[in-house]
Design brief:
By secondary structure, the chain is of the alpha/beta class. Helix content is 56%, strand content 14%. The protein has three domains: 13-171, no CATH class; 182-323, Alpha-Beta Plaits (2-Layer Sandwich); 327-598, TIM Barrel, CATH 3.20.20. The chain has an eight-stranded mixed barrel with strand order 6-7-9-10-11-12-13-14, surrounded by five helices. Strands 2-3-1-4-5 form a five-stranded mixed sheet, sandwiched between helices. α20 links the parallel β11 (477-483) and β12. α5 runs parallel beside α7, α9 (213-220) packs across α10 and α15 packs parallel to α17 (430-441). The chain is elongated, with a radius of gyration of 39 Å. The structure holds ligand C2E and magnesium ion (2 copies).
Length: 600
């Protein structure tokens, strides 16, 4: 709705600039032509030529600048134009030329009424009327007829334009709530999208739907429904900022357009709209940001889709498009609620065939979806920063489990490996967290290994290197995980205190048939040897693979053939079985038992 919450320009800026440029160039050209045609003797040609040329320059500049014109320039130029017309009228000499030049005021009136907000338009029209009066007072040469005709023309033009504008507004207004209707929303969105495009500010749109509105209509009648809608709109209008706008999209659906607002700010604004609603009225809301290249319908359909999600999620809530907030909240609650468990997968010595330790692998025991692997939640945990909290839990749990094994089987201490992501190494508290986990569990530092994947190290920051050294100084072992999948690892192996490399599963997978995989595994073992590092083969699934990696000179192996990841008590049972005299072994009752049988 024009003048209400819609800012100064109800039209796209490009149209405004083009109209302005056309008026200035046409005006300038016509004035200049008048000076070369036969004209009344009283005309001060020099002044008229000057204003004509100036007008041409302004017009050309406007054409060239296009939509880049800042907003304040439009009313300012209009005001300056009014006084340039006045100078031209006076320079016309008071005869028919002055009267003809006075016609140019009509443009000022039409332009300002069409393109400016009502107060600015009234000011511009008043300025034009005053300028007109001053000019003809100054000249004092005109009779009664000409001013009357001109003033009348001006007034009628103003009335007609204002009337058309009013009709246009009326067609865009919802009669019940007095907000924009769908057509008005089109105007608002078109304008705001264009502004966002030229100014580069964010633009966010929300769609609100009153919960159970149909029941209000059915139970209490349409009048009650109408009353509810008007009351809700009144509340909302009182809480929106100047420049925001609300439109009735249809029925009980409303669209709020929030210029210069990010989606998360949009969520806050919409949450504020929940206060003071009459009775127990609630609403569901969807929020989405306008993206460059979005058409209006693309934007609205995205908002509509998240509104649907909000309704499906139980109503009385706001869902933001592309926002993982709810997933992050669920993850955070699960960490606090103790829904994560740590599984352990054995690593086996290829010389002795005995279990040397376990890799701790986290799982989410989801109440509805069951046991979830790390690929389902680690990426979100990393993006949201929750990995720091989750990582500390895993570290703590793993150290306690390992301490438990040590207490029961002190003759053959089992190591434990914990995976950490880049985000954890970013955290200045990482070294302390490791030290705390060791101290609280009583696990000797030499039994803990920290695994960092090679791809993480490719983007290594100096602070990470520092932190890895600090951890190493605690006595903890460092392993480069998924070796062979990154690119900068050789250099990192030289600079950082790694003691172990874990050959990535993707190489072991193709053994022994692929000569390339075999050559690469051999090369990696060679690198390990040369640098004095232990080499672990990951993902060993077949006896042939196991035979190959043993023959190639790997120190340890890990994989489904030797034992799947399993809870800590299963790990303890494997150690227990291993500690018994060989005769007591009962082969085949657990996959992990195969460790000794195969690898030994
Ligand atoms: P990873 O560190 O390379 O761990 C080995 C992954 O390979 C594990 O998958 C394991 O179950 C799987 N695996 C082991 N042997 C075999 C085999 O013979 N065949 C096949 N096909 N797979 C095998 P999982 O548990 O799904 O973990 C995936 C990745 O998630 C891990 O790769 C690790 O990078 C990450 N991750 C696991 N736990 C944590 C954690 O606590 N913190 C962090 N930051 N990352 C973790
Ligand atoms: Mg690992
Ligand atoms: Mg790995």
């Amino acid at each position: 709705m024009r003048g209400h919450n819609t800012g100064p320009f109800p039209y796209p800026r490009a149209l405004l600039v083009r109209a302005m440029a056309l008026m200035w160039t046409a005006g300038g050209a016509m004035v200049l032509v008048c000076t070369v045609l036969p004209h009344p003797p009283g005309m001060v040609v020099g002044t008229v030529v000057t204003t004509g040329v100036l007008a041409l320059v302004v017009g050309a500049a406007a054409f060239a600048a296009g939509a880049r014109f800042p907003s304040w320039v439009f009313p300012a130029t209009c005001f300056v134009g009014t006084w340039m017309i006045t100078v031209t009228v006076v320079a016309g000499g008071g005869g028919t030329a002055s009267v003809s030049f006075s016609l140019l005021y009509v443009w000022v009136v039409i332009h300002s009424l069409l393109f400016f907000s009502r107060p600015v338009a009234l000011f511009q029209c008043a300025a034009a009327a005053a300028a007109y009066g001053v000019a003809h007072q100054w000249l004092g040469t005109l009779g009664a007829v000409e001013p009357l005709l001109l003033a009348g023309t001006l007034a009628v033009a103003a009335a007609v334009v204002a009337g058309l504008e009013h009709a246009r507004d009326a067609a865009s207004v919802d009669p019940l709530t007095r907000t924009s209707n769908r057509r008005g929303l089109d105007h608002v969105l078109e304008r705001e999208m264009e502004r966002a495009r030229t100014d580069g500010w964010p633009l966010t749109v929300g769609m609100l739907d009153i919960d159970h509105f149909k029941q209000v209509n059915d139970r209490h009648g349409h009048e009650a429904g109408d009353r509810l809608l008007t009351q809700a709109v009144e509340c909302w209008q009182g809480r929106l900022r100047p420049g925001d706008s609300i439109s009735r999209f249809g029925g009980d659906e409303f669209v709020v357009v929030l210029p210069r607002t990010t989606p998360s700010e949009g969520r806050q604004i919409i949450e504020r709209l929940r206060a003071d609603l009459p009775g127990a009225v609630t609403f569901s809301a969807g929020v989405a940001a306008w993206l460059p290249h979005d058409s209006m319908s693309m934007l609205l359909s995205r908002v509509d889709a998240v509104l649907y999600e909000a309704k499906r999620g139980g109503r009385d809530r706001t869902v933001v498009n592309g926002d993982d907030d709810s997933a992050v909240r669920a993850l955070s609650a699960a960490i606090r609620g103790g829904e994560f468990v740590v599984f352990h997968q054995p690593t086996v010595s290829l010389r002795t065939g005995r279990i040397t330790g376990f890799e701790a692998l986290v799982r989410w025991q989801h109440p509805e979806r069951g046991l979830l692997p790390p690929s389902e939640f680690i990426p979100l945990a990393e993006d949201s920063g929750l990995i720091v909290q989750l990582g500390e839990f895993v570290l703590d749990r793993a150290c306690r489990d390992a301490r438990g094994w040590l207490d029961r089987f002190p003759d053959e201490p089992a190591k434990v490996s914990v995976n950490v992501s880049g985000r954890q190494l970013d955290d200045p508290g990482f070294t302390d967290a490791v030290a705390c986990a060791l101290r609280d569990s009583g696990l000797p530092a030499r039994l803990l290994t920290i695994e960092v994947t090679e791809t993480v190290l490719a983007a290594s920051l100096p602070s990470w290197a520092e932190r890895l050294w600090d951890v190493r100084r605690l006595g903890v072992q460092l392993a480069m995980d998924d070796f062979g999948t990154g690119y900068s690892s050789l250099n990192q192996l030289r600079r950082l205190p790694f003691g172990v490399i874990k050959v990535d599963r993707s190489f072991v997978e193709d053994l022994p048939d692929s000569p390339e995989a075999a050559a690469l595994v051999d090369a990696m073992v060679g690198i390990g040897r040369a640098l004095g590092l232990a080499v672990v083969a990951e993902g060993v699934e077949t006896a042939e693979q196991l035979a190959y990696v043993r023959g190639a000179g790997c120190d340890e192996a890990q994989g489904f053939l030797l034992g799947r990841p399993a809870p800590a008590d299963v790990a303890a049972r494997l150690l227990e079985r291993q500690s018994l005299p060989a005769a007591a072994h009962a082969p085949g009752d657990h996959s992990g038992d195969r460790a000794a049988a195969h690898a030994g």
